[in-house]
## 1
Amino acid sequence: MGLWTERRREPGWVLLPLRLFLGVVFLDAGISKIADKRFLDDASPTSMHANVLAIKGASPIGDLLGPVADHGALFGILLAFAEIAVGLGVLLGVATRLAAVGGMVLSLSLWLTVSWQANPWFTSADVVYLVALTPLAIAGTGGVLSLDGWLANAAVRRPGRGREHTRRTLLTGAVAVLGVAVVGAASLVRRRSVSTAEPDSSGSGTASTGVLAKVSEVPVGGAKQVTDPTSGDPAWVLQLTPGQFTAVDAVCPHQGCPVNFASADAGFICPCHGSTFDSTGKRLSGPAQRNLQAISVAADGTEIRRT
């Protein structure tokens, strides 16, 4: 009883709940990316490609994201594999410090891109993950319920450098096989692609004050992405019914990511955190708690202006 009481005071037990939570979070993040075919489909409004294009302009490292946007599927797969590796390392206690540092790099990258516009800044979940991983990067698992700890104890019980090397090699191989199995299982449950409309993001309004777009640029039943000349925010101008134009501010009220237009029926989707809105901007689901801000517009025959 005394020994158990003493062991419970070891730092590794204090870190165990944190390991369980972070391991599950990173595993879920990686598996969901592999399992969702839309994430690797550049034509989807929730893909890695669309995500990068949505945040590139506001990110402080936006100039470095060109290759990521050009090869969205490749970087999406690499991101998913990295998240799965971090999750397994933290959860099973294999190279925990290395896994934690890798998770910190991922969290920092996501903070500087996906959640950079979170206001206040400390509401960004990626900042929380970045800080939460620091105890594991410093202390590891403390030998508690970890495969690294098991290896260390085995080496003490049965000394022998060659034997320890064999155990570590076998353990590393087993974890690698488990990671491949997780990726394979996620691939098998990959959901069917969702047919989406590729948003036209080539325009940004005209130079005229208050003009959002030309009437000819907005397709019937579709939308055009523009820049609101008044606020400087990205916006969408829609013509869901012939001759009737509406507009919404494209900034997601959750953490500031620009939303993408999927279709007249599907509405808008935030590529960063998955919030969805109907074609009028009304919130349907996701972490966002408010609707997209409506913009009052009128068409004069050739141009669509704010009113």
## 2
Amino acid sequence: MDDIEKLKKLIPHWMEHNDEHAESYKIWAERVSSCEMKDLSEILLKLHSESKKLKALFEEAIKILNID
């Protein structure tokens, strides 16, 4: 398997895990906000937001690689 074929498998996998991690950040942000850790909650929410932005880049890569 050449590198492009490997990427055709890796990129969708990475995208899925990125989405899972993003949701985890959001859940933890909600959990720590009830512990009066607003600053940490805000950072976790920013991590969630930035991770969601990465989805567009993963989708661009998938399009370039012609992955169905």
## 3
Amino acid sequence: MLQRKNRLPVSARLSAAKTYSTQLFTVKIAKNTLEYNRFGFIVTKKIDKRAVGRNRLKRQLRSCIENILQKMITGYDFLFFLKKEGVEVPTALFCQTLEMLFTKERLFL
């Protein structure tokens, strides 16, 4: 479970954010003035009607974030919009896609 300080508030808009899209998710990345990163996850009912399915997708992505959080540069807000293609994808593929994106954007130490 992500610590409370690493959770992005629901009211966050991230209007001046860079947007990156992958096959599994779209992420908005914005700089913040804090010494830690914050993460938010959005899974709409179009993806899965059941709350169980939506929450499972969020848990998968959160577990990937927890594994790489110590290697990341701090001071950013991340807002993830999960896509329908990620419903049946194993967690390892989520983690691999996430690490490739963050490496490409130089968000690792």
